[in-house]
Specification:
The protein has 537 residues and is an alpha/beta fold. The longest helix has 28 residues. 41% of the residues lie in helices and 14% in strands. The protein is built from 20 helices and 17 strands. A hairpin with a 5-residue loop joins strand 13 and strand 14. Among the domains are: 209 residues, 3-Layer(aba) Sandwich (D-Maltodextrin-Binding Protein, domain 2), CATH 3.40.190; 166 residues, D-Maltodextrin-Binding Protein, domain 2, CATH 3.40.190.
Length: 537
C-alpha cells in the first residue's frame, strides 16, 4: 500500500527540494523549515569526526548480502557508526526482488533518505528520471562544501565529473570506482602446447592466423586419430567475443553487448556506427572464410559459457577469446596486423567508474549535509581499501611496518564475510584508486593474473568508445525506438554473413535498410549527447 507523507513532512520535502536544486536559491522557505535546517546544521561538524554532535538516524535502502546479515552486523559498519555518530537503519532487499521494491518506493512508497549499494539505481533509467522529478536531489553543492574525498576524485579525474553530470548540469548520484579494473575484456589466447607440437611460430597477422588455424585443423592434436580439435571458438558476450579483432581490418567494433550504444565509437569527435562501415564488411568476409573452411566452432553463436569453458578446460580449442582461461596451456596472443598492413589495435575499456548509480540522496532526507559527509567517509582511501579487502587489523588485511597493507588469502573452508568483516563489494560503495592500490601488497597466488594479460595488449589499446554519458528521457526514448529494430537486424545479418556469406552482394541494401530504420536520426542524437558531454566543465 502506498503511504502518503504527513503535511509537515511534505512541506519540508518541498522546501528542501526547491532550496537544494540550486543549492541555495531565493525561494521563500517556511519558518519551521528554516528552524529545522538551522538545527540540523548546528548539530553538524563541518570537517572533523564525529560528523554530528548528537546521534542521528538515517534510513538507507540497500541490497541484502547473501549471508542475510544486516550491514550493522559487520565490524566495518560498526566502526563507521562509532566514528560518525550516525546510526543507519538499513532497509535491505535481496537483489532478485530489488526491481519490484524500487518501483514501489518511487511510485509513492516510503522513500529512504538515501540509496546505497554498487549500482543500486539504474544509470540508464533511474538517475535522470528521478533527478529531473526532484525525487533525487542535486549533490554538486554538497560535494563542494562537505565532501573533500569525493571533490578530490572529481578534480583529479575530470572525466568522472563529465560521466556523473546529467543533461541538466546536476550530479544526482555517486559511483563505485575501480581504477585497477582490467582495461580489456575479451582477449585472444592460443594453445601454446599445440604450437610447440607443430613447431609453429606465434601468428602476428590475420593471414598467419589463418595458416595456423589450418594447421590446427589438419593435424591430429588430440592423439585419437579423429582430428576432432576445434581451431577457434568464441562466445557472444563481453568477455569472449571477437569484435576487437575487427580492428585488424581498420576499425574495432565496440560495445556490441551494451544496450544503448551498440557498435558506437568516436573518431575526431565524430560518433561512428561501426556496423555500417566498409572495415566491418572486410572483417566479416575474413571470418566467413574461416567458418566456411571449418576453422571456427559452429557452436560459437549458440553455446553458453559452461560449454565454452569446458572446451578450453580440456584444451581442445586452438584459439579462444576469453577473459583469463584457467587452462595454463593457453597464452596471450597479441593483437594482429591486418591483411593490408593495418596496425595492431585492441579495444580499451578505461578503468574508473564501474557503475554511476551507487549512491543517491532523496528529497525526504532532513540531513543531506550529514549524509554527504557520511558517504564521503566511504570514499576515504583507507575505508575504500577496507570495503574491498577487509577490515584493517583483521584476518584479511594486515598492516606492515612500512605503512603498507598486506592481503591474506582466504583459508580453505573459511567464510569470506566473517574473514573480511565487510560485506561483498557489490553491497557497498567504494573507490579503489591507483593510490589506494599502491597501499596494498597482495599475496602472490602463483597464477596468471588479468594484469599480465592486459600488459600484452597495452601497447595496442585504443580508447575510442562512446562515453558513459547521460541521455535525457526523450533522447533515451528516441534511441530505443530506433535501436530495437536496427540492433535486431544487424545481429541477424552478422550471424548470417559470418556463417553463410553473402555480405558483398547484400551490403548496399543492408546499409540502406538501416537508414530507412532511422540510423541517421539515431546517430544525430548520439552526436548531440556526445557534444553535450564534451562541453561539461
Amino acid at each position: 500500500m502506498n503511504k502518503k507523507l504527513p503535511i509537515g513532512k511534505m512541506l519540508l520535502t518541498l522546501s528542501v527540494t526547491v532550496g537544494l536544486a540550486g543549492c541555495g536559491g531565493n525561494q521563500a522557505v517556511p519558518v519551521e523549515d528554516k528552524q529545522a535546517e538551522a538545527k540540523a546544521l548546528s548539530n553538524l561538524n563541518m570537517k572533523d569526526f564525529p560528523i554530528v554532535k548528537e546521534k542521528l538516524t538515517l534510513n538507507i535502502a540497500g541490497f541484502k548480502p547473501p549471508s542475510g546479515k544486516d550491514l550493522n552486523e559487520y565490524k566495518f559498519f560498526q566502526d563507521v557508526e562509532s566514528k560518525t555518530n550516525i546510526h543507519i537503519n538499513w532497509n535491505l532487499t535481496p537483489g532478485s526482488n530489488w526491481q519490484e521494491k524500487k518501483n514501489l518506493l518511487f511510485a509513492g512508497g516510503e522513500l529512504p533518505d538515501a540509496f546505497y549499494a554498487h549500482g543500486i539505481l539504474n544509470e540508464d533509467t533511474d538517475i535522470v528520471k528521478y533527478g529531473s522529478q526532484g525525487i533525487l536531489i542535486p549533490l554538486e553543492g554538497f560535494i563542494d562544501k562537505y565532501a573533500p574525498n569525493i571533490k578530490k576524485l572529481l578534480q583529479d579525474n575530470p572525466t568522472y565529473k563529465k560521466q556523473l553530470t546529467g543533461p541538466d548540469g546536476h550530479i544526482y548520484s555517486l559511483p563505485t570506482i575501480d581504477e585497477t579494473y582490467s582495461s580489456t575484456k575479451s582477449t585472444m589466447f592460443i594453445n601454446k602446447k599445440w604450437l610447440d607440437e607443430l613447431k609453429l611460430p606465434m601468428p602476428t597477422t590475420t593471414d598467419e592466423l589463418y595458416t595456423t588455424l589450418k594447421a590446427f585443423k589438419d593435424n591430429d592434436l588430440g592423439g585419437n586419430d579423429k582430428k576432432d580439435q576445434i581451431p577457434m571458438s568464441f562466445l557472444q558476450n563481453w568477455n569472449n567475443d571477437i569484435n576487437s579483432l575487427f580492428g585488424a581490418f581498420g576499425r574495432i567494433d565496440r560495445d556490441v553487448h551494451k544496450v544503448g550504444n551498440n557498435h558506437l565509437s568516436v573518431e575526431n569527435n565524430k560518433v561512428i556506427y561501426a556496423a555500417a562501415q566498409p572495415e566491418y564488411k572486410e572483417a566479416i568476409q575474413y571470418f566467413n572464410k574461416l567458418f566456411t573452411e571449418g576453422l571456427v566452432d559452429k557452436e560459437s553463436f549458440t553455446q553458453d559459457s559452461k560449454v565454452f569453458n569446458a572446451k578450453t578446460a580440456k584444451g581442445i580449442v586452438g584459439v579462444a577469446f576469453d577473459w583469463n582461461p584457467a587452462n595454463q596451456d593457453y597464452v596471450s596472443l597479441p593483437p594482429l596486423k591486418g591483411p593490408k598492413g593495418q596496425k595492431q589495435v585492441w579495444a580499451e575499456y578505461p578503468a574508473g567508474i564501474l557503475l554511476k548509480g551507487s549512491f543517491a540522496i532523496t528529497n525526504v532526507n532532513k540531513y543531506p549535509e550529514a549524509t554527504i559527509r557520511w558517504i564521503d567517509n566511504m570514499y576515504d582511501p583507507k575505508n575504500s581499501l577496507q570495503l574491498s579487502k577487509g577490515v584493517i587489523g583483521g584476518q584479511s588485511l594486515k598492516e606492515r611496518s612500512d605503512g603498507k597493507y598486506e592481503t591474506v588469502l582466504l583459508p580453505q573452508g573459511a567464510n569470506d564475510d566473517d574473514f573480511k568483516q565487510v560485506p561483498p563489494t557489490a553491497y557497498s560503495v567504494w573507490a579503489t584508486t591507483m593510490a589506494t592500490n599502491d597501499m596494498v601488497v597482495s599475496t602472490p597466488t602463483g597464477k596468471r593474473s588479468k594484469v599480465d594479460i592486459d600488459n600484452v595488449c597495452a601497447p595496442y589499446l585504443v580508447n575510442n568508445g562512446f562515453p558513459k554519458a547521460y541521455f535525457t528521457a526523450e533522447e533515451s526514448d528516441q534511441i530505443s525506438r530506433y535501436l530495437t529494430d536496427i540492433d535486431a537486424y544487424v545481429s541477424k545479418m552478422y550471424a548470417k554473413w559470418m556463417m553463410s556469406g553473402g555480405i558483398d552482394k547484400e551490403w548496399d541494401d543492408y546499409v540502406k535498410k538501416m537508414n530507412d530504420m532511422g540510423l541517421d536520426k539515431m546517430m544525430k542524437i548520439n552526436q548531440s549527447v556526445y557534444d553535450r558531454y564534451q562541453s561539461t566543465k
